[in-house]
Amino acid sequence: MTPSENTFESLVPVAMIVAMAKNRIIGVDGKLPWYLPEDLKFFKRMTQAKPLVMGRKTYASIGKPLPNRLNIVVTRDTSFQAAGTRVCHDLSAALELADQQATIEAAEEIMVMGGGEIYRQALPFAQRLYITEVDIDVDGDAAFPEFSLDDWREVQRVAGKPAEGQPRYDFVVYERLTTD
């Protein structure tokens, strides 16, 4: 799907949340390549009471719906079902459902939480990026898509507090620059 094929326009801002290495890696074999408890707390805090959009593989890596959030799983598999989730068969339908729910519940934004292909498809619609920038290069099989910092403005950067043996990381928020 390319942005020109999609006419989705949200009433509620679309945001993406991700932890990624310097080389853009976000996962290996369906798991995070690091364990950063502070990042998991950040993720929970930023996504509470907001609709979540995720791919089937991301859902499978979690193994259950996340509480206090509408969990929307995107998959081409028309037979896929998972208790406690809503299933959509393309990103556009998932974003429309999330937008409707966010409007009803007065959520401040829709949260796209991966994986790599869902991020790639959703990036053109995102107005905000919550990125935990992990200061390492790792091998992996899932990556966050390339994006130009010329299109984004950094609005917040907070240094993480890594425990001994953990890599350094920052919590960074970017907002898309408008092209008016």
UniProtKB/TrEMBL annotation:
Keywords: Kinase, NADP, One-carbon metabolism, Oxidoreductase, Transferase. SUPFAM superfamilies: Dihydrofolate reductase-like (SSF53597). InterPro entries: DHFR (IPR012259), DHFR-like_dom_sf (IPR024072), DHFR_dom (IPR001796). Pathway: Cofactor biosynthesis; tetrahydrofolate biosynthesis; 5,6,7,8-tetrahydrofolate from 7,8-dihydrofolate: step 1/1. It catalyses: (6S)-5,6,7,8-tetrahydrofolate + NADP(+) = 7,8-dihydrofolate + NADPH + H(+). Signal peptide: none annotated. GO terms for molecular function: dihydrofolate reductase activity; kinase activity; NADP+ binding. One of its GO terms (biological process) is one-carbon metabolic process. GO terms for cellular component: cytosol. Its EC number is 1.5.1.3. It is an enzyme of class 1 (oxidoreductase). Residues 13-176 form the DHFR domain. Pfam families: DHFR_1 (PF00186). Belongs to the dihydrofolate reductase family. Key enzyme in folate metabolism. Catalyzes an essential reaction for de novo glycine and purine synthesis, and for DNA precursor synthesis. PANTHER family: DIHYDROFOLATE REDUCTASE. This is Dihydrofolate reductase. It comes from Vreelandella nigrificans. The lineage of its organism: Bacteria, Pseudomonadati, Pseudomonadota, Gammaproteobacteria, Oceanospirillales.
